[in-house]
Amino acid sequence: MQARMKNPATVLPEVATGVKHLVKAANSTGLPGTTLELVHLRASQINGCSACVWMASQGKNAAAGGEKLWAVSAWREAPCFDDAERAALSLAEHVTRLADLNADAVPDELWAELTKHYDEEQLAALTLWIATTNFFNRLNATVKEPAGTVWS
């Protein structure tokens, strides 16, 4: 498959600059890189973004996801995730599936669980990371970005 056009984030250089700042900020909070990669993969799986799924599982960021990547789609049943990762993965699903949920897209019970594991800066980073993943999933789907080419 060939992309319809270059990825919009590469057409407008200011976008790449902004994304680099976001990545730097998210990584400066002490939030584990593994957690960031796990939620990136889960949101990308939900959205069917083959380019981002490839990047998370096979691309240059795969090592950051650790040994748990194989189980992300079954995170509820897989024994390898800790409570903090489970809360983050649940947040990724809730934020990604806003249209599928009721008016309380992120339930108070989930938020309370998240605050047991993450401080405000880490929650900001996690939320922005998930939103950015959804942003790129939508860009990639629109231009039909082939797996194996994004940011490689």
From TrEMBL:
<dbReference type="InterPro" id="IPR003779">
    <property type="entry name" value="CMD-like"/>
</dbReference>
<keyword id="KW-0575">Peroxidase</keyword>
<dbReference type="Pfam" id="PF02627">
    <property type="entry name" value="CMD"/>
</dbReference>
<dbReference type="InterPro" id="IPR029032">
    <property type="entry name" value="AhpD-like"/>
</dbReference>
<feature type="domain" description="Carboxymuconolactone decarboxylase-like">
    <location>
        <begin position="13"/>
        <end position="93"/>
    </location>
</feature>
<dbReference type="GO" id="GO:0051920">
    <property type="term" value="F:peroxiredoxin activity"/>
</dbReference>
<protein>
    <submittedName>
        <fullName>AhpD family alkylhydroperoxidase</fullName>
    </submittedName>
</protein>
<keyword id="KW-0560">Oxidoreductase</keyword>
